[in-house]
Amino acid sequence: MRRFAWLLAFILVLQACGTKKKAASRSGDSFGKNQTSGTTGEKGSPMPDDPGSFVYYDIGSVEEYIETFADVAKLEMKAYGIPASITLAQGILESGYGRGELTRKTNNHFGIKCHNNWDGDFAYHDDDRRGECFRKYNHPMYSFRDHSIFLSSRSRYASLFRLRRDNYKGWARGLKAAGYATDRKYPQKLISFIERYQLYRFDLEVLREGYAVYPQPKQFEYQYYTVKKGDTLYSISRRYFVPVEELMELNNMDSSQLSVGQELRIKTEKPR
């Protein structure tokens, strides 16, 4: 029932996004390799089916950006514990409320670069240096999910998850301290967006629904996945929402090469 409830919630968010603003789409490469449609990952929050082509939302104002993606940010908060206010403020700042050149051509709302082991689609864009590699997504929701995974799977951001979920000022300062951005005014910019547009109200809405203010101890279990033809470590990591690095470490792998029939051990969070 819990999985069905999450699926229904995400379908409703998709429908809401579609009615709030008509999406403009164009042909493009599918996101990643061996895309798994409609899967439910480690955190229990399903992703939308792969649209098969590049889909973006033609947004005209900050208010419209908030209206379009607030429910997505709230679902990510429930699934990963990152305050919805922080997610929205970062999205507004990093993407130019969806109007930035990088976001319009990649659906990358958080300026996440390719980094090591990125096996998905990408595009080159001038940033700190010319022609840097940035991650590319078929649908904006994949960007929001990747942002959650990016923060929750890297040790340098671990201290953030010991903060209260309604402490948006602590999260904003912690992101800068952990090296998320080089701009020394990054925390102030996030806090300014949160307070100007009262984004903290979305944190409170999630907390009122029963989400813990403090992080709760997690319990894990292990399952096994049998590699099929066409699988890559990246596609498997997306299916279970675990980093490629964790899969390799858990299975004592020195390379990303897979063999059909190979069994991979996967760590997943127990449902509560």
If you had to describe this structure to a student in words, what would you say it looks like?
This protein folds into two domains: 207 residues, Lysozyme; 50 residues, LysM domain (Membrane-bound Lytic Murein Transglycosylase D, Chain A, Roll), CATH 3.10.350. The radius of gyration is 18 Å and the shape is globular. The chain has 272 residues and is α+β, with helices and mostly antiparallel strands. The strands form three sheets. The chain has a two-stranded antiparallel ribbon with strand order 1-2. A two-stranded antiparallel ribbon has the order 3-4. Strands 5-6 form a two-stranded antiparallel ribbon.
Question: What are the key terms here?
Answer:
2 domains; globular; two-stranded antiparallel sheet; alpha+beta; 272 residues; disordered N terminus; 10 helices; single chain; Membrane-bound Lytic Murein Transglycosylase D, Chain A; two-stranded antiparallel ribbon; Lysozyme; 42% helix
